[in-house]
Amino acid sequence: MKQSPLEKKLCNISAPVIEDLGFALVHVKHLSDNGGTVQVMAEDPKTGRLGVDDAAKISRALSAVFDVEDPINGAYRLEVSSPGIDRPLTRLSDFEKYKEFEVKLESDIPAENGQRKFRGFIKEVNGESIVIATDQGDTELDYNSIVKAKLVLTDDLIKRTANL
Question: pTM of the prediction?
Answer without folding.
Answer: 0.84
